[in-house]
Amino acid sequence: MNAAFNGYLFKKRIDITKYCNGDERFVTLREPSSQEFLKIIDGADKGGDDGDIVMMKNLIPLVPDLIFEHNFFDAEKNEKKISNREVAEFLCSKIDLMVDLTVQYVSSLPLANGNAGK
Model's pTM, two decimal places? Predict the structure, then answer.
């Protein structure tokens, strides 16, 4: 899919296989809107681990809407793809996974790194 078709210039694919008992899994998060971006980074100026914790706390309620693509299926329902909300519940249920996802996603955002337009 090209950016014009899906409406997003930026997407971040995050491999989360190591958190899924070796099952090959990924989640792709889309670029945040301006309002979502401001919510994510709000209070993150504390820096260090405190800043990461604040960003994770801010990111959690946005995760279901930020999921662009995933490869999670429900084996009990003939491999039907599960909802973004169900994927988000799984992601948020594992603290180490959520910390890793937050750091990878936020660090890849162009404006979060001062790399806008580069």
Answer: 0.82
Q: Report if residue 118 sits inside a domain.
A: no
The predicted model gives 17-46 an average pLDDT of 90
Q: How far apart are CA 76 and CA 11, in angstroms?
A: 30
Which residue, 60, 58, 52, is CA-closest to 90? 60
What is the number of structural domains in the chain?
1
Find the largest Cα–Cα distance for the chain: 46
Whether 87 is in a domain gets the answer yes
Which residues, including other chains, have CB under 8 Å from residue 5's CB and lie 6 or more apart?
A: none
- Give the range of the structural domain holding residue 19, as residue numbers without chain letter: 3-110
Q: Give the CATH number, domain containing residue 81.
A: 3.30.2220
Going from the C-alpha of 35 to that of each of 81, 86, 111, the distances in angstroms are: 29, 24, 13
